[in-house]
Known about the structure:
By secondary structure, the protein is an all-alpha fold.
Amino acid sequence: MKISPNRILYLDEVRSLAIILVVLGHLIRMFSHDFQSWQVGSVVFSLTRIGVPLFFTVSGALLLTRKHDIKQFLEKRFKRVFLPFAFWIIVYMILGVLIWHYQFTLQYAYEITFGIHPLCELFWFIWSLIGVYLLIPVLSSFIREYGDFGSRYLIIITIILSLLVAVGFFNDQHIKHDFRVIFNFFPVLGYFILGSYIHNHEFKLSNNKMFFLGVLMFIIGITGHFLKIYYKGLGGFSLAPVDLFDIFVVMETMGIFIAFKYADVKMISDRIKPLKEQTLGKIIVTFSSCSFGIYFSHYILLLYLAEKGFMHGWRYKNIFVYFPISAVILIGMSWALIYVMSKIPVLKIGSGVK
């Protein structure tokens, strides 16, 4: 496989990391049952929560500065996102009936479709993505007209709102209701804007300095994120979530995105070939291409393997051994499934592979 010269490899790297973090985030919940496993899980969870935000930043980087014909854009997104989504909605419905013996009713179909059912809680991400896609043609026009000033304006709003989330301003449901228009608009959209700005803006610092700035932001973000998760979760062994719009999550996501953009093997040695020319680069692109399908397939595989398959009971075993083993198995099986599906015409639509 030859990587297209138009392919932006670091975005494939970020997308690949994002799906790995999403899988690990769902998997680590299975292992948290005592104090030690809960502590390990809290560390892992503080990292994996940025998986979905990273997906949003990549989409923003690729879409927000382009000029879009609304009809063509929606048709393309329909084929790229909604058709694979519809495929997996049907798969989840069928497997829920055949394996978990749920009764097929209108209520069951409704809950599966909108991610309300325990089998498919991950579907919320797709509906959020679809919601933002409806706004992309309008938002991209704003970004192209106002340029960096327009992006910075929206980023400032994003950061102010994320700070308010961090201090608990929106914990009161009445306040959240009062600010519902702006609060519901920015949490997802903010990551699109951040991804677009970081990707397209030329910063004055050198690549090396930007890389280390990104690493520093990530370290600060994950430290604050972990402390919030840890102290929120004391008194129980469930992993306490932190809002994806929290300032520490935003900082963690921005740090990773900046670090990947400015990472360069020349920082290690001039003799190392660019990643695009290495076999590893080709593997990353292949894995990244399968990421959308992996998002859908890994969750139902995890539920089956953990509840009815050979991973049943692993949660009570040594987390340092069985968590990484489970991760390799789950990611490997999901990737293999989607890769095979992408080669079969009737199933390719569900693979999400372009």
